[in-house]
Recover the amino acids of this structure.
């Protein structure tokens, strides 16, 4: 292996490790490749904003970083599991049983994409 390739491999391994250590290091590009944030916006506005725009019942408010950041540390999968399966006062799928797992995930991705990734 050339010196250059070795350096790249070590650099890459280090990069991957630091990514794994910070579950919240999600890029917008990753989110948008994996989820439909446009559809997520529509679902958020129709279903989730009822609680998340005002923060009723202690729902984490849209874009309130002090409330969302400690949750984000656990990563997208964790948030999606809670959104789909319910969590304390958070009803499963926001109480809209007809939502698919994909649609619920898109809504979570929209919230994260808008507020938590690369804050302005
Ligand atoms: C009836 C009110 C209500 C609606 C509607 C609602 N939520 Fe929530 N949500 C909550 C509350 C309350 C919490 C805080 C739960 C806790 O941390 O104890 C929460 C927490 C969350 C969390 C964070 C979970 C975690 O792991 O900390 C996510 C993600 C979430 N909601 C997504 C959604 C999505 C997506 C929708 C729409 C499909 C939605 N919510 C609709 C009340 C609601």
């Amino acid at each position: 292996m050339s010196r250059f390739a070795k350096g790249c491999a070590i650099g890459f391994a280090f990069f991957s490790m630091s990514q794994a250590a910070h579950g919240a290091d999600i890029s917008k590009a990753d989110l948008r490749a994996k989820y439909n944030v446009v559809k997520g916006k529509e679902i958020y506005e129709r279903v989730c904003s009822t609680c998340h725009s005002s923060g009723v019942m202690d729902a984490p408010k849209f874009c309130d970083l002090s409330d969302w950041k400690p949750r984000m540390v656990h990563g997208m999968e964790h948030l999606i599991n809670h959104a789909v399966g319910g969590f304390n006062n958070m009803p499963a799928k926001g109480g809209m049983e007809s939502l698919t797992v994909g649609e619920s995930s898109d809504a979570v991705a929209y919230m994260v994409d808008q507020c938590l990734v690369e804050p302005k």
Observations:
- The pocket of heme C is lined by residues 43, 47-48, 50-52, 57-60, 71, 78-79, 82-83, 87-91, 93-95, 104, 107-108 (CB under 6 Å).
- The radius of gyration is 17 Å.
